[in-house]
Amino acid sequence: MLTWINKRLKHNRRQVFLYCNLSFRDNNRALYDYMIAHDYNKRYKIVVSASDYKDFVSMAPKNVTFVGPLRAVMTYFSSKWIFYCIGKLPIEPADDQYVIHMEHGMPFKDASEGQSKYNIKSQHYTNVMATGKCFVEPQAHIYGVPLEKIFISGNPKCDSLYLPNPQYDFGEYTKLVLWAPTFRKSTSMNMQDTMEEQPVIPIVDVGRFGELNGYLKKMGVKIVVKLHPEQDLSKYDVVDMDYFILLSHQEFLKRGMELYRFMKQCDAMITDYSSIFYDFLLLDRPIGFTEDDIDDYADKRGFAMDPDSYRPGMRLRSYDDICLFIKDLVDENDCYKADRDRVNSLVNEDMTGDYSRKVLNFVGL
């Protein structure tokens, strides 16, 4: 019914709608920041819908409106240009609309249950984005669109990686490491991606946090663990250490930090099955991959890409592996440079940045 109504309406060619069914972040936020910085709101009315929209209402610039989910459908009905990065509205675009899904990360994990329900009989997008040709078939499968609807572009959120290093204050250190685990359990999304209940941090038991902090201090390395926004925090305790720093998503934001700006400051990354490593490859810096629960994860959630071929870095299955990764980083013993170059060329076909402008040009804005 919503599609039937939408296709009988006229849509404002001067209205841009950014929709996300979670918080205002990722590619939508990056695209929005670019549009405001370049005065798009002087030529277009920009409307943003996200779960945390109330946080932005009072600071909205001229010709910009933040709305909740109840007003999202009506905004869709009146907009010519629609951008998704997380979630969608169950409405098919009219002939005079342009609806593009930028995704919030290219597929590495298998599609969630919500995504696997898409089918080719119901086309919700004019185009779906992929950062490399290797993602064309997975994206078409996940979103139920023909291959020709997939277009190649870099992520707008990765524009931050081409800016000068930020100076987020973490005191003195020789090396700084971002540890970015994906969630194993999300209460907001009603998902658990492993059969067994997992701790908030893989591999390192809470009883060894102090030991790891001491080792990192000895090596002059600081690790900042930034938890996934959808991670269940019911078993999370604040860890106040000087070299092993554990931050929830909200604590990260309270420090005034932006994830991709912080990535630029970091000398290395530790992650697991999160697609964030695709983006970090643009910096060509060492990556360690925790995989203590890989068999369980493969059975429960599964992978869209071959985990053996697309993870260019040291595999970490124990506490000692973490320490070895840190030692190699300090000693600048980088054994995975060639493998990173190989994977980067597959997953990031455009490595030149300026992705927000390119996406806007692609759709005709």
Report the end-to-end length measured between terminal Cα atoms.
29 Å
Per DSSP, the total helix count is 13
Percent range for helical residues? 25-40%
Shape: globular
Lateral arrangement of strands in the main beta sheet: 3-2-1-4-5-6-7
In terms of per-residue confidence, which ranges show pLDDT below 50 for 5 or more consecutive residues?
A: 112-117, 185-195
**Helix/strand structural class:** alpha/beta
Number of strands: 15
Secondary-structure element sequence? HEHEEHEEHEHEEEEHEEHHEHEHEHHH
Question: DSSP strand (E) fraction?
Answer: 15-25%
Largest sheet: 7 strands, parallel
Report the C-alpha radius of gyration, rounded. 21 Å
Walkthrough of the structure:
- The protein is globular and about 65 Å long.
- The strands form three sheets. It has a seven-stranded parallel beta sheet, with helices on both faces. The protein has a six-stranded parallel beta sheet with strand order 12-11-8-13-14-15, sandwiched between helices.
- Helix 6 (209-219) runs parallel beside helix 11.
- With 365 residues, the chain is an alpha/beta fold.
- Mean pLDDT is 89; it is low at 112-117 and 185-195.
- The chain is built from 13 helices and 15 strands.
- Strand 14, helix 10 and strand 15 (314-316) form a beta-alpha-beta unit.
- The longest helix is centred in the first third of the chain and has 12 residues, at 26-37.
- It has helices at 2-6, 26-37, 69-78, 113-116, 136-143, 209-219, 249-254, 259-265, 276-280, 294-300, 319-330, 337-347, 355-363, and strands at residues 12-20, 45-49, 64-67, 79-86, 98-101, 127-130, 150-152, 175-180, 185-186, 191-192, 221-226, 244-247, 268-271, 287-290, 314-316.
